[in-house]
Amino acid sequence: MIEAMTQFKLRIAHLYPDHMNIYGDRGNILTLRQRCAWRAIQAEVLPIGPGAVVDWDAIDLVFFGGGQDSGQALIAADFVERHGPDLRRAIDAGLVLLAICGGYQLLGHYFLTHTGERLPGIGALDLHTIGGGKRLIGNIVVEAAAPLAPTRLVGFENHSGRTYLGAGVHPLGRVIAGNGNNGEDGSEGAVYRNSIGCYMHGSLLPKNPQLADHLLTMALSRRYGSAAVLPPLDDTLELNAQRTMVERVGRN
Amino acid sequence: MRPALRLIAAILAGKAAALASRAFGRGGGTTLPGVVARRIEPVTLARLCALLPQGVTLVAGTNGKTTTTRMVAAALAAADRRVLHNRAGANLVSGLTATALAGSGIDGRPRADIGLFETDEAALPQVIAETAPRLVLLHNLFRDQLDRYGEIDTIAANWRAALATLGAGATVLLNADDPAVAMLGEGLTARVRYYGIDDLRHAAGGGEHIADAQFCRACGTRYQYLARFYAHVGHYRCPGCGRERPTPHYRLARIEPAGIGGARLLLGLPDGGMEMQLPLPGLYNAANALAAVATARELDTPAGAIRQALEGFSAAFGRIERIDAAGRPLLVALIKNPVGASETVRMLVEASSAAAGLHMLVVINDRHADGTDVSWLWDAEFERLAGVTGRVVVSGTRAADMAVRLKYAGIDPARMTVVEALPAALDTALAQLPPGAMFCALPTYTAMLELRTELVRRGWARPFWED
């Protein structure tokens, strides 16, 4: 089975790695890379910086992390103006994407700051974000919706923006512990076609191998059809880390 | 109550709290006396500091402030100056107050010539306001405990506002190699001095993904790096507006590493050169020594006393501390944020080349003082450990997370054992240690305190407040 995978290659676009790289989100890239390498799938990670021209049809998986406010301010216009229309079309067509925190917010319609400024997103996901006063910080456990149910995802959130979902997306899951999208409606994250956004750092994918493999499976089957089935890996350590936090946070 | 009486009442209450804290075995009373005294007289610290004949010096920065402050204290002591120093590491305003109380008589008169305080990054603005320092050393600024401190831009903005309140009689000493810190020197009333590393043979790069200040503060353009030591530290220039690394007044001209034993340093100072054998390894300890020399010189310490102090320097607890674990040498190296951890790992890997494998006990906690967010483990470059690691025991409240991190860094899970409780983890690590191997413990802050307690219990180390 492993040998059969060597024919497969995935191109992973990492959006603005120099600007949007806070809170260890790089762990998601390390995880995608390693989980491909352990299965002899070739994975090429392409850093996409300001001014880059991207052929989204050639990309199999996109990762967009969170950044410092100053980093986000430097790339927001480039992202929205340069990539907005094309990326929106690609997401509509089923591009596989994971966005965390600042990247998640930029995929929505807009971010309304606490000073009343309306910062545009690309509107690929039917959601908007409103700047809040108090930051929502802490461990978070989320019961994933289908197709990942009944997985409980674990992570760490640290955001002041409150995100509200429209009818065009559904939540990644239901908050068991923590705040999630807005601390009000019990939802966390958003899913639209093959794109997922959420607030979970930690890093997210290393401790939630089910989600990592879900993304890889979608990317492979999109490029190679249903013949591409991921061979299982020994996830003892990963699942132990996930279970440890589910049990610990659940106890509190 | 009259102010003079209120201060005496605060001092007495604080001293009583210190006695009680020790009597009940609650550590060394490094913070509580300050909390008690400030409840009675909120300006206790300001009043006590105002009586110090040579004023107050503050040291802040994400990494290296404990070591650097201890180096400066040693240099001042070698010049026979009596130093009020928060040596046990309590670096919030309550800890500084406790230190000042312990070093004062009940009338508030200090039994010291000068105050020297390592200061927490977030506490620095308030401490500047209360202590009116004559000298402020800012060593570096990296991402650290984002859940507690916030982003480094926020800290830099708060520091800038606090530095702007200092008058012309004060000096601000800045690391020229860290643009997040160096750019704070613009437009200040205080006198500004810089220090930096000129030996570019050690600009090995690394950690670019955690460079938090690689875009010009003034115009947003990406700095060009002529050389990079690690993360955003190096020799840089902004192609947008021409701002560049300031020319340092204190220079580290040459670093000649000598393994785990230390390095030979050649320094260029405003009034001549200095050569010394520093008994601490690693590039960042050389940078700490440079900052300490610059600080001590700015405080008019004779060069001979500085050199004598640094050549006889021994590490602070947990900062590359060497401990005899019943005949087996144990090296304890605190890791607490991505840049510090990456540089510690780099130093260990380089130093372990002569040993029969590098064996480790990694203890990761997520208590308040560690930061409750362990995302930073994924920013640190543990990848360097792949290939040199013998056996690893992973411990602490986040042992399970760390085991995953090491697996993705390329360390074979078969070499790892997860033991959450620290005493059992230490036993496991010692039991599987082959002869001649290098054994190193990498704890987070609270894990280091726990490890220390365990080592004291076994009679292998002294309590930290006696350190």
What's the rounded overall pLDDT mean of chain B? 91
Secondary-structure element string of chain A:
HEHEEHEHEEEEEEEEHHH
Tell me the β content of chain B.
15-25%
Number of beta-strand segments of chain B: 17
Q: Please report the distance between the alpha carbons of the first and last residues of chain A.
A: 43 Å
Structural description of this entry:
The complex is a heterodimer of chains A (252) and B (467). With 252 residues, chain A is of the alpha/beta class. Chain A is built from seven helices and twelve strands. Chain A has helices spanning 2-5, 26-37, 69-92, 102-107, 204-207, 209-224, 236-251, and strands spanning 9-15, 42-48, 61-64, 96-100, 110-112, 118-120, 127-144, 152-165, 173-177, 187-188, 190-192, 195-198. In chain A, the strands form two sheets. Chain A has a six-stranded mixed β-sheet with strand order 2-1-3-4-12-11. In chain A, strands 5, 6, 7, 8, 9 and 10 form a six-stranded mixed β-sheet that branches. In chain A, α2 links the parallel β1 (9-15) and β2 (42-48). In chain A, 52% of the residues are buried. By secondary structure, chain B is α/β, with parallel strands linked by helices. Chain B has 15 helices and 17 strands. Chain B has helices spanning 3-23, 32-40, 44-50, 65-78, 93-102, 124-131, 146-149, 152-163, 179-182, 283-298, 303-311, 338-351, 399-408, 422-431, 445-457; strands at 56-60, 83-85, 114-118, 135-138, 171-175, 191-197, 224-230, 233-237, 250-257, 263-269, 272-278, 319-325, 328-333, 358-363, 389-395, 416-418, 438-443. In chain B, the strands form three sheets. A nine-stranded mixed β-sheet of chain B has the order 2-3-1-4-5-6-9-10-11, with helices on both faces. In chain B, a hairpin with a 2-residue loop joins β12 and β13 (328-333). The longest helix of chain B has 21 residues, at 3-23. Chain B is globular. The two termini of chain B are 38 Å apart. The model of chain B has no long low-confidence stretch (mean pLDDT 91). At the A-B interface, α2, α3, β7 and α7 of A face α13 of B.
